[in-house]
Amino acid sequence: MGPLSRDAWAQRLGAFRASPSAFMAGAEGEDLGRDLLGDLRSEKLSEQTKVSLLALSLEYPAQLWPDVSAAEVAATSLLDTLVLLPPRPSALRRPLLLAATTALAAGGALGPTSGASCRLLPLLLGLAAGSDLGRGFVPASEQRPLQATACECLRELESCKPGLLGGSLGLLRGLLGQEGPVQPLSLLLALALRNTLVLQSRVGAGLGGLLTDKVSPTGGGPWDWTLVEEGDGRLQPQAPSWPAAEEGEGERSLTAREHSPEEARELRAAVIQLLDTSYLLTPVAQAQLLWLLGWALRGLQGQPPALFKPQLVRLLGTAQLTLLHAVLALKAAFGEALFTAQDEALLLRRLTLAAQHPALPPPTHLFYLHCLLSFPENWPLGPEGEEAAPLLLGPQLCRGLLPSLLHDPMALLARLHLLCLLCAEDEEEEKGQLPSPRHYLEELLAGLRQRAALDEGPRALATVCFQASYLVTRCLAGQPTVLTPLIHGLAQLYRVRPMLASHFVDFLDQVDSELREPLKVVLRQEVVSRPGRDEALCWHLKMLAKVADGDAQSATLNFLQAAAAHCMNWDLQQGLLRVCRALLRAGVRGGLVDLLQVLARQLEDPDGRDHARLYYILLAHLAGPKLGVALGPSLAPPALASSLVAENQGFVAALMVQEAPALVRLSVGSHGVKGPLPVLKLQPEALEPIYSLELRFRVEGQLYAPLEAVHVPCLCPGRPARPLLLPLQPRCPAPARLDVHALYTTSTGLTCHAHLPPLFVNFADLFLPFPKPPEGAGLGFFEELWDSCLPEGAESCVWCPLGPQGLEGLVSHHLEPFVVVAQPPTSYYVAIHLPPNSKLLLRLEAALADGVPVALRTDDWAVLPLAGDYLRGLAAAL
Questions:
Q1: Which residues contact 295 (CB under 8 A, 6 or more apart)?
Q2: Strand, coil or helix: what is 695?
Q3: What is the pLDDT of residues 527-540, one digit of tens each?
Q4: φ, ψ at 486 (rounded to 5°)
Q5: Measuring CA to CA, how many Å separate 790 from each of 486, 717, 779, 787, 794?
Q6: If residue 711 lies in a helix (H) or strand (E), which one and from where to where?
Q7: What is the 8-class DSSP label of residue 730?
Q8: What's the half-sphere exposure (Cβ side, CA atoms, 13 Å) at 566?
Q9: Is residue 577 classed as helix, strand or coil in its secondary structure?
Q10: 407 backbone φψ class: left, alpha, beta (φ>0; ψ -120 to 50)
Q11: Which helix H or strand E contains 839, and what residues bound it?
C-alpha cells in the first residue's frame, strides 16, 4: 500500500489520540508505527504533516515501540531519514533527533549493543560541539537550534544512563567558553559532572583527566560505557530539594575520598565557570543548575561551599520563586558553612515581608508561608528535656502573619502553624506589649469554634475548626496551658451543636492519648447530662458509642434507659445498640444486663430486639476476655470461645442484618399532578420473593424535607405490584437525586439491607396546576399572575424546537394540565405552580414550522435556567 494522504493521516491520528489503547488493539494498530516510519520519507506529504507524525512518536513512544527491538528499528529508521534529508533548511531535523532519542530512551534500547545508540551518540555530541559533519549536513541557519536540541537530547540520555558523558566532560567544558547556546550546554555539563562525581566516588576513583581531556566527538572510536556499567543507573531525581532521606550510599561516598590537588583545582574551576555564566540562564534553569552543583559539591572534601557565595549575594533579593527555592535548598544543604547569621536574618526578613504582600496570589502566598515553616532556624533544637535554641522568627517579625478568621482555610492553617511555633517558645507576656502568642491562639480557636457553632452553618467552617484544633494538638502536645482550654472549648462546641458528632469522632481517632482521654471524659459528661428525649438523640448516641467506657457506668446507663423510651425508629435503635456494644467491650456488666433485657422486650423493630437478645446471651455466657474477642472485628471464630458461641455461628449470622445485592428494582412511572404536593410514582419489581420491604429515601443537601419510608408487605417476581407513591416536599423548586436504601427479609428468614441505584427527580416532576379559574376568566387570571411576577422576579425568552406533531402535539403531550388559556393551534398560556411557593408562566405564541418562541416569567430567578433547559428538551422527548 502506498503512502497515505494528509487527510487520511489526520483521520488516523485523530482516532489514535481518542483512545490509544483501543486503536492499537484494533486492525490498524499493528501497522501504525511501520506506516509512520515509511511515510516520513514520502515526497507526497508536506513537512507540516511529517512534523505531526513525529510529534505523535514523541507523545506515545511506549505504544508505537513497545519493546527493545521495535525501539531499535524505529531509531535506526529515523536516523536514516535524518541522513537522507537534502542540504537545504528543513523543519524535520530537530524533530527527527528528538524522536530518535525518545525511541531509544523510552524503549530501553540505549546501550553498547545497540547500533542505533552507537550512531546517535557521536552525532549528537558532534552537533552539540558545532562540528562540521560534512555533506552540508547542518545548514548555517539551523546550526544553533540544532546545537541546543542536541544538548537537550544528550541531557535526556545522560539522565537515563548516568555516567554516559563522563568521558566528554573536558569537551563540554571547552564548549561552554565558545560561542553557542549557553543554557543547554550549562545544564548538560552540570548534570554530567554531578553524575560522574557520584559514580566515581562509589568505586573509589577520582576524576583523573576527565575535566581536561578533549576527545574528538566524531573520531569513529567506540563509545566508552565503562562508567555507565559501573553505576547502577539509579541516582536521586533532579528535583530542587534536599530531604533528609537523601543521605544515601551515593552521597555518603562523596566524603570517602579526597581529590588530588590538581583534580580539586580543575573541579573548582569548572564549577566557577558554570556559576559565572548562570546569570544568562532563565530562572528555572538557574535553579536547576544551582541544585545540580550543590548536590555535586555537598560534603565533598576540598570544595568549600563559599564558591556559591557570589551567587547567594546576587539571589538573596530575587523576586523569582524558583530562584528563591534554590537559595533555600542551598541553605538546607550547606547551612552555616555558606550562610552567615546576617544572611539568615536577611533571608528570613525577606520571606516574612514577601508573605505579607496584599497582592500575592494564593499559591505564592502559601509558598512563602511554607518556606517560613521549613526554615531550619524556625524549629527548636536540642534533646528533649533540655533548653532548645530560640526561634529566629520572633513575635515582632511575624506580627503581620498572624492568622485571622478572614483568611481562606489554607492560608489560615499555614499562619496558625507559624503561631504554634511562636507559642512553643512559651514567652512571657510583657507589660505594655501586645498580647502573647498563646493568648492570641486561644482567641483565634474560640473564634473558629464560634463560627462552627452557627446553626445551619457551612460544613467547611466546622472542618477548618477541627483542622486547626488538630494542628494545635500536634504542635503543642505536652503543654497543658494550651490543651486544657482547647478541651473545654471543644466540649462547649458539642454542647451548642451536637450534629458535629461525626467530626468529633474523626478528631478523636486522629489525636494521641494525651488529648484523647480527657476529651472523651468531658464529652461523655456532656452527653449523659442531657435528657434522654433530646431532639439530637441520634448524635448523642453516636458520640456515646465512641467515648463510652468503664468509667461513669451509672450515669451512662441512666441516660440509655431514659433514651430507650424515645428510640422509635430503626436508626435510633441501632445507635442505642452500638452504645451497648461499646459498654460490653469495655467490660461493663451490672446494670447493662437489665437494660438489654428491657430492650429485648420493648424495642419495636424485630432486628433491634434480636440484637439486644444476642448481646444479653453473650454477656450471660462469656467471661470478659472471651466477650471482647467475640465482639471484635474479626469474623473468624475465636480459639477460646465457649461452646455456645462455637455452636451458634449460624444463629448469630441469622440475627445480624446482612448486606446483600439488591433483589428489588425501582423505576419511576408517569407523573401525577393531583393533590397539594408533587408525588413520585414508583414501580417495584422483585428478582426473588422478599417480605417486609422497607424503602428509605435520602436527598443530598437541604433541597427537600425528609422523605417518609415506603413499606411493602410482600413482593414476588412475575406478579404485578401496585405502584408506590412517594410524596415530595421541596424546599426549593430544583431537581434532586434520591439515594435509596432497602431493608427486607428473604424467604430463608435473613434480614438484609442493600443500596439501590439512585432515583432522579426531574424538574417537570415538580409541576402542579393552579386552581382552575371560573369559566371565561382564564385570560384575566393569567394576566394577573403574569403581572405579579415583576419587579421581584425575572423574565426571559426561549426558542422551543417543535417536532413533527407541531405546537398542539407538544402542548397536549407535556403541558395539557397547566394550560389556562388556549387558542389552538397557535397560542397557549401556561401557568405552573412550583412548590413550595414559586410559579412559572409561559406564553407560547406565533409558532413557526420548526419552533415557537416562548416568553417566560417567574417570581424565582433560579427557575429560569431550569425552565430553559426543560423547554429546549421537549421536542426531543416527543
A1: 194, 236, 242, 251, 333
A2: strand
A3: 888 776 667 889 99
A4: -65, -40
A5: 52, 54, 18, 6, 7
A6: strand 710-715
A7: B
A8: 15
A9: helix
A10: beta
A11: strand 838-844
Rg from Cα positions in the chain: 38
Tell the residue number behind the cell numbers 501504525, with chain if given: 32
CA distance 802 to 822: 18
Angle at CA of residue 645, ends 643 and 647, nearest 5°: 65
User: Beta strand pairing status for 751-761 and 768-769?
Assistant: unpaired
Residue in 339, 293, 291, 272 with CA at minimum distance from that of residue 312: 339
Q: How far apart (Å, rounded) are the C-alpha atoms in residues 308 and 275?
A: 8
Beta-bridged to residue 854, according to DSSP, are 798, 844
Q: 405: how many CB neighbours lie within 10 A of its CB? A: 12
Q: What is the rounded distance in angstroms from the CA atom of residue 174 to the CA atom of residue 129?
A: 9
128, 188 contact by CB (below 8 A): yes
What string of DSSP letters covers 571-596?
HHHHHHHHHHHHHHHTT--HHHHHHH
Which H or E run contains 783? helix 778-788
User: Taking a C-beta distance cutoff of 8 angstroms, is the pair 405, 463 a contact?
Assistant: no
Strand partners, 665: 685
Residue type, 98: L
The amino acid that residue 871 corresponds to is L
Q: Cell 541522513 maps to which residue?
A: 83
Q: What is the DSSP pairing of strand 690-699 with strand 710-715?
A: antiparallel
Cβ contacts of residue 348 below 8 Å, gap of 6+? 372, 375, 377, 378, 392, 393, 397
Number of other CB atoms surrounding residue 758 within 10 Å: 14
Instruction: Write the pLDDT tens digit of every residue in 436-459.
Output: 888 889 999 999 999 999 887 788
Question: Contact, 91 vs 141, CB < 8 A?
Answer: no
Per the rule left: phi > 0, alpha: psi between -120 and 50, beta: everything else, 179 is beta
Q: Provide mean pLDDT across the span 16-29.
A: 84
Which amino acid makes up residue 64?
L
Which residues lie closer than 8 Å to 29 by C-beta, 6 or more apart? 23
Q: How far apart are CA 522 and CA 539, in angstroms?
A: 16
Selection from 385, 496, 467, 472 nearest residue 424 by Cα: 472
Rounded Cα distance between 636 and 618, Å, is 16
**Cell reading at 496:** 451548642
Nearest in space to 121 (alpha carbons), one of 168, 74, 71: 168
Residue appearing with cell numbers 527493545 = 68
Residue 166 near residue 195, CB atoms below 8 Å = yes
Amino acid residing at 253: S
Contact 837, 787 (CB under 8 A): no
Label residues 278-287 b or e (16+ Cβ within 10 Å = b): beebebebbb
CA distance linking residue 118 with residue 134, whole number of Å: 18
Give residue 154's pLDDT band: very low, low, confident or very high (50, 70, 90). Answer: very high
| Nearest residue to 271 via CA among 283, 282, 259 | 259
**Closest by CA position to 367, among listed 316, 307, 410, 426:** 410
> What is the residue whose three cell numbers read 486492525?
27
Q: Are strands 794-801 and 851-858 parallel, antiparallel or unpaired?
A: antiparallel
Residues 6+ apart with CB under 8 A from 658: 750, 751, 752, 753
Nearest to 270 by CA among 241, 248, 292: 292
Mean pLDDT, rounded, for 151-171: 90
For residues 702-720, one letter each, b for 16 or more C-beta atoms within 10 angstroms of the residue's C-beta and e for the rest, the string is ebbeebeebebeebeeeee
- In whole angstroms, what is the distance from residue 191 CA to residue 439 CA? 51
Rounded (10°) angle between helices 537-547 and 553-564: 150
pLDDT at 560: 87
Whether 451 and 405 have beta carbons less than 8 Å apart is answered as yes
What are the φ and ψ backbone dihedral angles of 48, each rounded to 5 degrees? -65, -40
551: Cα separation from own chain's centroid = 41
- 595-615 mean pLDDT: 85
pLDDT beyond 60 at 220? no
